[in-house]
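Subject: sequence -> structure tokens, single chain

Hey, anyone have a minute? Need the predicted structure for the following. Not urgent.
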Amino acid sequence: MKALLLTLILLGGLGSMAQAQMKEYHAERPEGGNPTIAQAEALTRLMTAQLKLNEGQVARLHRVNAIKLAQTDDIQWQYHENPAQMRQALSELQSYYDSECSRILTPSQLSLMRGPQPTEPAPVSDTEGGLG
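Reply:
Had a minute. Here:
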């Protein structure tokens, strides 16, 4: 009985020490937490308001947004000396993000997210920029 009580007290003490250390870790950051998660939450909130997402879409999109933002930071850090590779990796990440969004969102939500797309290119006048 004494051994069980001693074990519980020891575990409680260790748990409170770990929690205190995490509070110190979060207190060191000006925003109080993981900046990528905070950015993902803000982006997801914005998309929820604009696209009228349901709860399932919000949860799945939050996860995809967090992945995209974390990998964007990683790519920028990893390829900071090679802009060409950075652009390539960011392009691949964007195509992954687009494919995941197309799985989560409805076609009308996707069109709202991408914004208005030009239907036809503007006609070019024969007299502009040429010899004449």
